[in-house]
Specification:
Blueprint: H1 21-53, E1 64-66, E2 79-83, E3 87-91, E4 100-101, H2 102-107, E5 113-115, H3 122-135, E6 142-144, E7 154-158, E8 174-178, E9 187-190, H4 199-213, E10 242-245, E11 249-250, E12 258-259, H5 261-269
Parallel strand pairs: 1-8, 2-6, 2-7, 3-4, 7-9
Antiparallel strand pairs: 3-5, 8-9, 10-11, 10-12
The structure holds zinc ion.
Residues 62-64, 208, 212, 218 line the site of zinc ion.
């Protein structure tokens, strides 16, 4: 969600003796008018700056960094690349193949950072990849831990802690850019170091961050990947219309009363293609 624009500094009241009540009334009107104009000008400036430059809003208190939607939206990236090796990222418009990250620009605009990568075991890394693959299995998207040869993919930087990119809130376990629409070639973060490299927690965090990059909001449903509620069993993208929200229900980004995470991803990506037909078992000819 965009942060509310800051109020302009209060206009100092003019130092003048109060001669009459009527003059005070006029003064009040004048001050009110000036304040309104100042706020209007400020909001206008913020909007123009955002539209022109596509710069970031302040990071949401949640795990998303709100960005402006591009005028010409592109299709979704259909490869989710889990990067478990140390990775160097630079602030910029999201471009996974070039290591440019808008989340980084919002939190660490001064320059590149190198994240340490996955520090869990190799066996748990395999489980992690399998787990993320399972979350996105219903949809037409590939999950891989091999660097794609094309430049159109979502990069998940797995490992490290929020402080590595200048985020001080320790409770944050992942971060993603978000504007309620599809952000192609996004760079998202799964801070495995903040989750003791636990497979399920890291997997579900990655699921949430990637889905933010596909436009999904938080849902008020404890079984959904998109929830902040206390877990109530295994999570998935649930085919159910539910209210959005973190600690309490609210309208969804864009104004809809509900979101269905499963349908949203299906709309964005389409269904997974059916598995290739198995060749028919040939019965050996009897002699
Ligand atoms: Zn989230």
């Amino acid at each position: 969600m965009p942060a509310a624009p800051r109020r302009p500094p209060p206009i100092p009241a003019p130092r003048r003796a109060p001669p009459r009540r009527r003059r005070w009334a006029w003064l009040g009107v004048l001050i009110g008018l000036l304040a309104t104009l100042a706020i209007g000008a400020y909001v206008g400036l913020v909007v123009v700056r955002r539209v022109e430059t596509g710069r970031w809003e302040m990071p949401d208190p949640a795990d998303v960094v709100t960005i402006v939607r591009p005028a010409k939206p592109r299709g979704p990236s259909r490869v989710i690349f889990l990067e478990g090796a140390p990775v160097t990222l630079s602030p910029g418009d999201d471009d996974a193949s070039r290591g440019l990250s808008s989340v980084l620009r919002a939190n660490h605009p001064d320059g590149p950072v190198t994240l340490p990568g996955w520090k869990g075991s190799k066996a748990s890394w395999k489980k992690l990849v399998t787990c993320v693959r399972k979350l996105f299995a219903p949809f037409d998207v590939e999950v891989t831990d091999q660097r794609p040869t094309t430049d159109d993919f979502i990069l998940v930087a797995v490992g490290g802690k929020p402080a590595d990119i200048g985020v001080e809130q320790k409770r944050i376990t992942g971060l993603a850019p978000f504007n309620g629409g599809i952000i192609p070639r996004a760079v998202v973060f799964g801070f495995a170091g903040a989750m003791s490299h636990k497979v399920t927690t890291t997997c579900e965090t990655i699921g949430m961050e990637v889905a933010h990059a596909y436009g999904l909001d938080h849902e008020y449903l404890c079984k959904d990947v998109m929830t902040y509620l206390a877990p109530c069993g295994a999570k998935s993208f649930v085919d159910k219309d539910v209210a959005c929200g973190e600690g309490k229900k609210r309208a969804c980004e864009g104004g809809a009363a509900t979101q269905n995470s499963y349908r949203r991803l299906l709309d964005a990506l389409g269904p997974a293609p059916p598995p290739p037909a198995k060749p028919k078992a040939t019965t050996p000819a009897k002699r």
